[in-house]
């Protein structure tokens, strides 16, 4: 597809099998940059506009994943670019938060608090989701330390099959087996995991949502009792699990009962919405779909839409009051926190989301994406589950649909699907993930298009995804 076709999404048709084979032209051959994979070349991107990325070798790629569920407004948004430029021209893209305040930083924080309908009270700005998770863990511990310097609350409860970040603390909280493995000797021993909320793999035959959720609450309560309720700081969960499990959503009622168990024993509820938040699931915050506000919440990715590196911790009034009535400070800080240029980008992104009512588009197009994916792939013998919310959808692949047996990890099914989608045959991104079942076995891909997609875009995304999946399994069947 040529760049000129970008303005006419309805005219796009998936390329046929006679398209040229993938070549090395325009592929990445870096010498000095340590890439994510040292033995793989990547297309070199030279520009982007809307839902499209343009490569050095003349290809036009439809970005179906918003990078890693980041570019919620697509690429090249002039309003956000101008907002960043305006802040840069003030001469203060950066301020040391230890000494100075910033009006635009406070304006962003006000916008974020308003977006929670006043359920949260203050915002702590960071540069990445991992940093936000580190901050939330420390803030949760300090909440109890303020009242008792000898507090026995030292334990966190998190879930298997979740990913909360790459820093040592955030990785220690995570339940992602493969990413934890090289660093196990460094990780915190005071994090304890319970099963995820994965209805596809855990629901018993005939089990209702209410019964399933009650069983999940019991798992959490039993862990509290095992550890000693007085030793638990918080329970941490992604409302919709992103990269680790492939868009596995909470079951209705789950967030409420888990919060109730936490509060029964005086612990905090921390929700990690770095990937699934800021509009991705059809409400600004995923927890708003159930009306259950956490004590602490992390956000990122869609907060700045990729125009600046920014994330945050949203803090409830009770946590703020504990600090205010105690030491009056959060014993934590980073050089690049609360930068005005980061705030300028994020404020403009959030303003656009609100002014253009993009949450409605996420809900509308998300429902249509679900319909199209299920229409094209629900009967495929190797598509075990199609799940998600809003514009955040995952496909889980299985060798046997009845038993839900996964493929041998050596086949690299999800990566094969992603690689074929990105090839010149299709020119579209799909986000691959492995370890979906037990941290080692299991394959899924994620679709997380921008909030500006149209019905025609969704038709295109679903058709290409279906064609890619069918082709990959035809090739696997011939091995």
UniProtKB/TrEMBL annotation:
GO CC, one annotated term: cytosol
A molecular function (GO) term: pyridoxal phosphate binding
Keyword Lyase: no
Chain positions covered by the region annotation Disordered: 1-25
Keyword Magnesium: no
Entry keywords, A to Z: Pyridoxal phosphate
InterPro entries assigned: Aminotrans_3, PyrdxlP-dep_Trfase, PyrdxlP-dep_Trfase_major, PyrdxlP-dep_Trfase_small
Highest rank taxon of the organism: Eukaryota
Family: Belongs to the class-III pyridoxal-phosphate-dependent aminotransferase family.
Protein name: Uncharacterized protein
Organism of provenance: Amorphotheca resinae ATCC 22711
Lineage of source species: Eukaryota, Fungi, Dikarya, Ascomycota, Pezizomycotina
